[in-house]
Amino acid sequence: MEAKKIRLTREKETYLATLYGKAMDAAAENSILGDRFAADATARIDYDFKALKLPKGGEVTLPMRAWHFDQWTRAFLSANPESTVLHLGCGLDTRVYRIDPGPKVRWFDVDLPDVIALREQLYPEREGYRRIGASVTELSWLDAIPGDTPVLVVAEGLVMYLHEKDGTALFRRITDQFPGGQLAFDGYSGAMVRLVSRLATVRGAKVELVWGVDDPHELEKQVPKLHLAEDVEFLTMPRLVERLSRNWFSGAMYGVMGRLPFYRHLIRHLRYAF
Fold first, then answer.
1. pLDDT greater than 60 at residue 1
2. Burial of 273 (0-12, 13-18, 19+ CB in 10 A)
3. What predicted TM-score, i.e. pTM, was given to this entire model?
4. Cβ–Cβ < 8 Å for 177, 223
5. Which domains, from first to last, does the chain contain?
6. Do 18 and 61 touch, CB atoms closer than 8 A?
7. What is the pLDDT of residue 78?
8. Of 103, 104, 135, 249, which has the maximum CB count within 10 A?
């Protein structure tokens, strides 16, 4: 198939950067995620991916983050073979193809219309799978989704971009609509939100992070049906530290930083149940 001529604004390049990190990992000898779908997609896009500036270590952290959310997704679908998955702010992620859910799973990928249009060029249709082009905080998109099964909500790389009041309204609506389920997302601390926003400004990028999560239990108060089931400090995950440690010195540095609460809490992978 011919490569798609993709022209994107600078803001939309973030979608390609995430995809490229996974494609780089797929080409590595000891791949973390093994995302051949991401590799195939980058091969079909006519774009100078080498010009993208991945965050340092992004070829490790991006696939590792996705791998961890894949593990949570597989565990949920194993326990709930008849269920619904809401993949919010999906970008160009290929999770539905990596997971290959069973015939009783309804899977919805939700993102802005231009992102969904790009997905339609890159990825095939499949049974039980639907794409929705909408802002996740415009809650009317949920009207067309049946609320008769347990639901898994995956919001990887999304929550830090939402205003807190919009995010909590979204989660309350979902917990009211479905009989039960889980919500999984990566939460940045307030310090991490400020740090990433400042670094982006220095680089001239338009990245606005707004929602910092310093206490994961706060969400339980704002969305009373939720209760925290798992809190994973991403930056100290042993598999991640092992892959990032290039030598003895860097390994020792990660060990020292991993003992600092400030560092451990910069990025959390949070899983709530209701």
1. no
2. middle
3. 0.92
4. no
5. 13-273 (3.40.50.150)
6. no
7. 98
8. 135
* Of 178, 172, 156, the residue nearest 232 (C-alpha): 156
One-letter amino acid for residue 104 of the chain: K
Q: Which two tokens stand for residue 159?
A: 């929550």
Helix/strand/coil (H, E, C) string of the chain?
A: CCCECCCCCCCCHHHHHHHHHHHHHHHCCCCCCCCHHHHHHHHHECCCHHHCCCCCCHHHHHHHHHHHHHHHHHHHHHHCCCEEEEEECCCCCCHHHHHCCCCCEEEEEEECHHHHHHHHHHCCCCCCEEEEECCCCCHHHHHHCCCCCCEEEEECCCHHHCCHHHHHHHHHHHHHHCCCEEEEEEEECHHHHHHHHHHHHHHCCCCCCCCCCCCCCHHHHHCCCCEEEEEEEHHHCHHHHHHHCCCHHHHHHHHHHCCCHHHHCCEEEEEEEC
